[in-house]
Amino acid sequence: MVQNINQRKILTRLSPQTYEHPFDRKALISLEKMPGVSLMFNKINEYGIDRLLRFKFNGICLKVSERNFPDLYDSLVEACKILDVASIPELYLIHGTGYIKILTIGANSPMIIINIDGLEALNHEELLYVFGHELGHIKSRHLLYHQTALILPGLGKVIANSTLGLGGLATNGIELALYQWVMMAKLTCDRCGLLACQDINIATSALLKLSGLPGKYINGMVVEEFMAQARDFGNYNLDRLDKFTKMLSFMEPMHPWTTLRTAELLKWIESGEYQTLLSGENVEDIEEKIGEKEEKEEIEAAGEWDFLNSWETDY
Question: Which of 77, 111, 115, 125 could form a disulfide with 101 if both were Cys (CB 3.0 to 4.6 A apart)?
Answer without folding.
Answer: 115
